[in-house]
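Sequence in, structure out. First:
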Amino acid sequence: MATNNTDDNNLETFSLLWLDAAIHTNTENQEAQKQLRACINHVIPFEDPNRCQRYIQTTSSQDRLVLIVSGRLGREVVPLIHQIRQLSSVYVYCMDEEGNKKWAKDFKKVKAVVVNLNDLIFQIKTD
């Protein structure tokens, strides 16, 4: 039986996208994905920046996307996707915090540049 609930049409769907060339090979990243599913159920890993960019561009305007990106890929992708409405926030998870803060400061959707995984998880959960 189909139900007609107009309230559901106004709900935003949050998805967490994680773009990192080592997303599937790094056990620390895999463990973090499990922890993040506790606050955002829909976690989608990407290794290829082009596939991630296409996904973001084709997502419904009702969806809200949170992106975790490595520093190297962030430099490439963030300038290309920053203005997309569905992208609500970006977190740069990297090894060179100071170097990545230099480019990230130009993009208001970049909420944090972090080197520590626990800091990343905490920041996303509190935001």
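Second:
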Amino acid sequence: MFLASKLFWLLAQPLSLVFVCLIIAILLDAAGFERTRGFFSAVAVTLLFLTLFTSTGSYALQALENRFPRPQNPPNSVSCVIILGGAFENEVMATRGGLEFNQSADRFIEGLRLARLYPDARILVSGGDGSFSGAYEGDAQASTTFFSTFGIDPARLIRDETSRTTFENAANTKDLLERNALSNCLLVTSAFHMPRSVGLFRKLGIPVVPWPTDYRTSGRVSLWPDFSQPSLNAQLTTTALREWTGLLAYYISGRTHAIFPQ
């Protein structure tokens, strides 16, 4: 399932779809199917325009980020702070050492803040090596160095070092929470990733308080042409499409109760 999802996404992301449509158009042209070739060419151009030169990605991502707002008043106490991995540059760290973060670093920055705010809470980090090779250190392993560097007692950490997908995050976390008799937990992950995560956790019967971070949009995005940042638009569109596809796939496979959990 893990490899299948990885291979599917190689073809399903927006720029890959553009490339596939262009290849099909070229082959159809060579075979003399001019009308069908024109259709695939038009699809490729439309996808490319929407991906690079509009706010479509930001708008779709904003809907995800707005689904679970952060509570205005933090709980008085929590027994566990759950942090979903995906924030470390594991391949870079394997060759260069140290701690290197990607755009999702806020998951651990906010996790550190919460660890200090709730000094008696356990810190559960769920995240293994999600690469094809499986040859790198996952986020759960790297988290020990991160938290100890900032004065957090490693004894507070609970590590799930095997999860490669969000479903595995939820399933393994459920087992670890039960083994450690923990409840009343905060769930920390990127805001756009929260709907899919909450849907999975609820389906498995894990009550959590969503604590989103790592926002990528301002919350005031409207659909509009945007020629100022094509590379960023492509990145945001890719992220949004991945999340919406994941929501649909998990619902169809029976792993969540709703397409868009709330």
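Remark: The mean pLDDT is 94.
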